[in-house]
Design a protein that fits this description.
The protein is an alpha/beta fold. It folds into 2 domains: 136 residues, Leucine Aminopeptidase, subunit E, domain 1; 319 residues, Zn peptidases (Aminopeptidase, 3-Layer(aba) Sandwich), CATH 3.40.630. It has 15 helices and 20 strands. Helix 8 packs antiparallel against helix 11. The longest helix is centred in the first third of the chain and has 22 residues. The two termini are 37 Å apart. Bound molecules: ligand BES and zinc ion (2 copies).
Length: 466
């Protein structure tokens, strides 16, 4: 773990066991140059001897009678630089280090995120703590980064928890823990969900021994003038149901609640930051399983909104749970909805593993979310809600079917969702970026917490115009 501390001391002045010195295109930063002058040019001589140019993420560790120095190559992406540095430092044995802050906020966020570990289920967990002193950083910036990172870490933890532990009930319990931060959390059990008429959500849930939960969270600080409604997909495991997934595709399906985890992480972050707007979150949590009670192909379901749906693929379950959650959010008075879901493999085919697909029913709302994602350093790209493809969702027996054909799968999924809301909707298909198959600059393989930072930027942005 890394803890961050603001300090007035510069590299030349600080007294710590290790100093990190930035290098960009073979050059030291002005602070680094002052330090090097104090060291009679030791750093530049060592760089020349080692042929060290400071390519992004490259490092050179130097020990001398004057202390220890880690020369580190700067990337254009300062968050990624922070993440890589955190991973480098966690391999070294120093308990403390001094770092020039540069752009303190993104650097701090990268340092914190890069040091994340999930070792709860390992006999030998990592318990090392590294104190990083950021030269000339504003304490408020570090405080903000800590709170945002806490939201991201929680989302990552929830995704990384195994599905035998993180059942729908356990996810609801996790949501209930936000009461400690002043949120109102309501959890509906199966009976209450049935009484509301959420027939699509219930159909997906019915094959499992673990009962579903509908989670409704409210963060409502006094004097709030804006409102944001968030919906997250909450499949704690997606086997595909009778349209069963093959092993390789099923292996990471504990992460099919990453949208819901992002909603929870963002609400936690918002509460810690004390953002002055109302935020609501809705998660229809269940498992998609196979059993004698499971839903079938051909079943016709009655949604909360009243529309009927013919099931033509039980693996297109997310949109069924989301249809009911979205309509419920609107019924609760949502003015605009941001929805996040690991919805389709098709979005991953289109944009790869790092970029989320963005669909919007209204342009102002779309621009807000795009701008927020850019600021947050999370990659999203728009795809069209092409009306011509709506006919792919026609059913001979019901109002709609739950899948289109082989082509444009992310689009038909988004079109399906859009049928259940009239207020501006942005749908983020995060099937790619929610779960990393290998370690990256900002963390290890596994849950990434994708969406938390974007949602917090969106929320922040809404308070700035209000
Ligand atoms: N949870 C999956 C989507 C997914 C795929 C998430 C890969 C993360 C990584 C979703 O429920 C699903 O199975 N979608 C189907 C839809 C199809 C049946 C129309 C898919 O993408 O194959
Ligand atoms: Zn599925
Ligand atoms: Zn799914």
């Amino acid at each position: 773990m890394i803890t961050l501390h603001a300090t007035e001391a510069t590299l030349a002045e600080g007294k710590v066991p290790l100093k990190v010195v930035w290098v960009r295109k073979g050059e030291l930063t002005p602070q680094g140059q002052v330090l090097d002058a104090h060291l009679d040019g030791f750093l530049r001589r060592a760089m020349a001897e080692a042929g060290f140019k400071g390519e992004a993420g490259e490092s050179l560790l130097l020990a001398s009678s004057e202390g220890n120095f880690l020369l580190f190559g700067l990337d254009e992406d300062i968050r990624a630089t922070g993440g890589r540095l955190a991973q480098m430092l966690s391999k070294l044995a120093f308990p403390e280090a001094l770092v020039e802050a540069l752009e303190a906020y993104p650097l701090a966020e990268g340092l914190l995120l890069g040091a994340y570990r999930f070792d709860r289920y390992k006999e030998k967990g990592e318990d090392k703590v590294l104190a990083l002193h950021l030269s000339r950083a504003r304490p408020e910036e570090l405080e903000r980064a800590r709170k945002v990172a806490e939201g991201v870490f929680w989302a990552r933890d929830l995704v990384n928890e195994p599905p035998n532990v993180l059942t729908p009930e356990a996810l609801a319990e996790a949501a209930l823990s936000l009461r400690a931060l002043g949120l109102t959390v309501e959890v509906l059990d199966e009976e209450a969900i049935r009484a509301l008429g959420m027939g699509a959500f219930l159909a997906v849930a019915q094959g499992s021994q673990n009962p579903p939960r509908f989670i409704h969270l409210r963060y409502a600080p006094e004097g709030a003038r804006e409102r944001l409604d968030l919906v997250g997909k909450g499949l704690t495991f997606d086997s595909g149901g009778y349209s069963l997934k093959p092993t390789e595709s099923m292996a990471t399906m504990k992460g099919d609640m990453a949208g819901g985890a992002a909603v929870l992480g963002a609400l936690k972050g918002a509460a810690l930051l004390g953002l002055p707007l109302e935020i609501r979150g809705y998660i229809a949590a269940c498992e998609n399983m196979v059993s004698g009670r499971a839903y079938r192909l051909g079943d016709v379901l009655k949604t909360f909104a009243g529309k009927t749906v013919e099931v033509m693929n039980t693996d297109a379950e997310g949109r069924l749970t989301l249809a009911d959650a979205l309509a419920y959010a609107e019924r609760q008075g949502a003015k605009r909805i941001l929805e996040l879901s690991t919805l389709t493999g098709s979005a991953v085919v289109a944009l790869g593993e790092e970029v989320a697909a963005l669909f919007a029913t209204e342009e102002t709302w779309q621009k807000r979310v795009e701008e927020a994602a850019r600021k947050a350093g999370e990659k999203v790209w728009p795809l069209p809600l092409e009306k011509a493809y709506r006919e792919k969702l026609k059913s001979p027996v019901a109002d709609m079917r739950n899948v289109g054909d082989r082509y444009g799968g992310a689009i038909t999924a988004a079109l399906f969702l859009a049928e259940f809301v009239t207020v501006p909707l942005v749908h983020l298909d995060i099937a790619g970026p929610a779960f990393a198959k290998k370690a990256h600059a900002l963390g290890p393989e596994g849950g990434t917490g994708f969406g938390v930072r974007t949602v917090l930027e969106v929320a922040q942005g809404l308070t700035e115009v209000a």
